[in-house]
Inverse folding.
């Protein structure tokens, strides 16, 4: 806060330090055989004294001066010709009488604080001149400073503007750097929460406890609670019946801080995230992904997930960033997820800093990792993409409605299916819950080319997993529902859904992700309908459905879903990018 304040002050000071509003106006009028010359100082100035001078050609002669404390002084040789009068207030006006009409300039100079010398001159040989028609402003020696021509003025304005912009730019970067204290070096302490050997043991036991339903997770009850209180994370915890770690506050946090902290560099401390950091993580996660953030729901599951590293960065105890990595492919690949930076530190490179730290940490703890993989919902452009291998782009169709709306929507889809006569519409889709039954199919090397899998992987709710035995353990703990083309032989189509889970959208909604694999349109329509139908009894309230698919079936599927009043497309065509790079 203080740095922002300082920046604001600096910028204001700069803006204020330009020319002040103070000014001197001069006027003269004939008075018998002399001239009355009146000077007025305007603006918020403290006048210290006033000088009167006469300019004859290049010669400048002092006539006299006025000082608020010492009074009026007139130069000896002009004592008979000049009279200085102090009008109502010397701050505002002075009168000088010159006993001749010769062609000279008379100048009055106000010595002021803080502007210094403010001077104006008038040619008393000219006809009477009004107060604001003063001849030359703010100059010191009129005869030595010829007026600037048009180009001279233009040049001065341009140079002034460039200089101002230059100074403002420097101020901006100074302020930005002040806010963006980018890190230079890291020291990493490794603190391993699990080992690869633990991984498989835990996978089958704990798996479904928190991410999805088996231990009594009921989205509809959760949804009702979310509706009542926007602080959905706390509700989620109470719903889970877990002890409320956030009530233990800082003393316990302080005591264990060091043992969980794995590195630091100027100003930032990196720690393994713990359940009690939940509220702080939620505090930097407001409005992420337009309310579609999965982390409020997944966070506690992540705390115990085998092969998962979740790192938070704190600055002055304030949580400022989070990044997570899941080690897959038998320890050779890390999938990075969850990246987020607190809103007031975004745009300063902090995402890069935490990513670098997490990479380093993972390299130390999991030295076999050779590849980094991630998915993104935005296209960062060719320059950023060039740092990765772009494995695939998937099309995403997003629908929004409430549960009743989806009910009639699904009935409508079923009717459409009955009326359709696609070439493969008679092929049956078989529902599979037990992954073991799918294992031979998933490990068949023909599957990937047949279904045109993105990067030879199944992307389950943004998590790209190559089809290999060790990754089936990861999939098994996700409580997925699969539909597979069951017409015998090699399947033409396969799809899966993740159980609906609560997200912050609209103060509490459900998110339902369906991943479709294969390019057969009639099977895709069938699969979509089947997935929606199978969760109808579970969903309540507002539901967002994201359907991820091969781009060539997007238009047909969109058309299939169009034309319903109750369920609308949430956003236009968008893409999921699958990226990979050497680690
Ligand atoms: C996206 C977000 C993390 C970027 O944070 P930031 O500190 O402002 O990031 P910067 O713009 O300074 O970029 C720093 C680095 O992070 C990378 N980065 C930015 N957004 C990224 C993203 N979505 N996924 C991966 N890397 C990203 C940048 O490419 C850059 O890397 P480079 O230096 O190698 O080019 C931040 O805006 C945020 O928290 N947004 C909300 C959450 C979100 O959208 N997360 C995206 C997860 S896919």
């Amino acid at each position: 806060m203080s740095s922002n304040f300082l920046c604001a002050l600096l910028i204001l000071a700069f803006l204020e330090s330009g020319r002040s509003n103070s000014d001197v106006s001069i006027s003269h009028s004939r008075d018998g055989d002399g001239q009355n010359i009146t000077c007025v100082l305007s603006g918020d100035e403290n006048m210290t004294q006033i000088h009167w001078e006469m300019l004859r050609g290049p010669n400048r002669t002092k006539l006299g001066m006025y000082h608020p404390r010492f009074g009026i002084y007139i130069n000896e040789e002009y004592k008979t010709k000049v009279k200085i009068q102090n009008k109502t207030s010397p701050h505002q006006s002075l009168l000088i009488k010159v006993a001749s009409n010769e062609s000279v300039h008379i100048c009055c100079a106000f010595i002021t604080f803080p502007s210094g010398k403010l001077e104006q001159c008038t040619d008393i040989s000219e006809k009477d001149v009004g107060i604001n028609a003063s001849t030359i402003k703010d100059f010191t020696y009129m005869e030595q400073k010829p007026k600037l021509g048009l180009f001279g003025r233009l040049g001065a304005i341009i140079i002034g503007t460039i200089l101002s912009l230059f100074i403002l730019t420097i101020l901006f970067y100074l302020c930005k750097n002040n806010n963006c204290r980018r890190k230079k070096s890291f020291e990493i302490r490794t603190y391993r929460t699990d080992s690869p050997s633990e991984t498989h043991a835990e996978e089958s036991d704990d798996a479904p406890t928190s991410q999805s339903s088996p231990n009594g997770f009921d989205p509809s009850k959760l949804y009702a609670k979310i509706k009542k209180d926007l602080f959905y994370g706390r509700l989620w915890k109470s719903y889970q019946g877990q002890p409320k770690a956030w009530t233990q506050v800082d003393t316990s946090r302080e005591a264990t801080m060091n043992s969980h902290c794995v590195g630091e560099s100027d100003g930032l401390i990196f720690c393994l995230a713990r359940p009690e950091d939940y509220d702080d993580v939620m505090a930097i996660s407001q409005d992420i992904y337009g309310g579609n953030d999965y982390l409020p729901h997944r966070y506690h599951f992540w705390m115990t997930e085998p092969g998962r590293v979740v790192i938070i960065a704190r600055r002055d105890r304030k949580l400022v960033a989070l990044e997570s990595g899941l080690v897959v492919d038998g320890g050779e690949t890390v999938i990075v997820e969850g990246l987020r930076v607190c809103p007031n530190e975004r745009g300063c490179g902090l995402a890069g800093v935490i990513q670098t730290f997490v990479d380093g940490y993972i390299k130390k703890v999991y030295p076999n990792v050779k590849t980094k993989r991630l998915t993104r919902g935005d296209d960062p452009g060719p320059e950023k993409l060039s740092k990765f291998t772009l494995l695939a782009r998937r099309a995403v169709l997003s629908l929004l409605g409430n549960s009743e709306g989806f009910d009639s929507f699904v009935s409508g889809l079923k009717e459409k299916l009955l009326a359709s006569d696609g070439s493969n519409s008679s092929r049956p889709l078989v529902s599979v819950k037990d992954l073991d039954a799918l294992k031979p199919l998933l490990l068949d090397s023909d599957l990937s080319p047949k279904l045109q899998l993105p990067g030879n992987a199944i992307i389950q709710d943004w998590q790209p997993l190559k089809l290999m035995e060790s990754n089936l353990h990861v999939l098994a703990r996700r409580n997925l529902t699969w539909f597979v083309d069951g017409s015998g032989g090699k399947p033409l189509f396969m799809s899966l859904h993740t159980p609906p889970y609560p997200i912050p959208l609209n103060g509490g909604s459900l998110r339902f992700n369906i991943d479709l694999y294969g390019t057969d349109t009639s099977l895709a329509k069938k699969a979509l309908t089947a997935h929606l139908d199978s969760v109808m009894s579970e969903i309540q309230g507002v539901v967002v459905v994201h359907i991820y698919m091969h781009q060539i079936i997007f238009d047909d599927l969109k058309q299939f879903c169009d034309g319903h009043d109750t369920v609308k497309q949430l956003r236009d065509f968008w893409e999921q990018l699958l990226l990979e790079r050497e680690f």
Notes: The chain has three domains: 17-147, 191-369, 392-582. Residues 288, 339-341, 346-352, 355, 376, 380, 384 surround coenzyme A (CB under 6 Å).
